[in-house]
Amino acid sequence: MINMLLVGLFISLVQSPFSQNASETQNSGSIAIHPIATDHHLLTSQVDGIIGSWSLVMQAFDDNSNGKLDDNERKKGSGGRHFYQFNADGTCLIHTLKLKGSYELKKEAGRERLYTYIKDGGTQTRENAWYVISVSKTELILLSQDKYAFWIYKRV
User: Fold this and answer.
1) What is the Cα–Cα distance from 138 to 70, expressed in whole angstroms?
2) 57 dihedral zone (left: phi>0; alpha: psi -120 to 50; beta)
3) How many CB atoms neighbour CB 8 within 10 A?
4) CA-based Rg of the chain, rounded to a whole angstrom?
């Protein structure tokens, strides 16, 4: 009988933070992380999320190393060729060659990180590790893992 009570107490303690986190996520600001069944994460906003197809339109250097895409940096940006298609199940297509892969979004040290992986046979190789600067209905801005260049994508 005592064991049953302890098990019940343990289950309620474990479930409590998850249900609280879910309600906070629904009531929070524009960006939140939601786990899905495959252990991948989705970055979503109230209106849109990262799910969908994105084509690179510009690369710009973070000249002043402030981690923000400033107007002057955007003006000096140049074009590029790259493509992502993020699916709700954590899979993705990468690059103009449409390589199969996967992705995950994590919150690390208060910042959103996007990790992309290419599937090569039975192995998975990391393609990149981005900092997510912003995501909107039409634009996705990523900062390279070395914090040196912004990659600006448009939804297609």
Assistant:
1) 18
2) alpha
3) 10
4) 19
Query: Any idea how long the chain is?
Result: 156
What's the token pair of residue 141? Answer: 């801005």
Amino acid in position 4: M
Assigned token pair, 93:
């297509």
Residues 6+ apart with CB under 8 A from 56: 79, 80, 81, 82, 83, 151, 152, 153
**pTM for the whole thing?**
0.69
Cα gap 54→82, rounded to integer Å: 9
Half-sphere exposure of 83 (CA within 13 A, CB side): 10
Task: Count CB-CB contacts under 10 A for residue 78.
Answer: 8
Domain 34-155 has CATH 2.40.128.280: yes
Q: For the chain, what are the domain ranges?
A: 2-29, 34-155
Going residue by residue through the chain (156 aa), what tens digit of pLDDT does each one get?
333 333 333 333 333 333 333 333 333 333 333 333 333 344 444 335 999 999 999 999 999 999 999 999 999 999 989 999 999 999 999 998 889 999 999 999 999 999 999 998 889 999 999 999 999 999 999 999 999 999 999 999
Q: Quote the tokens at residue 22.
A: 């879910």
User: Residue 48's pLDDT is what?
Assistant: 52
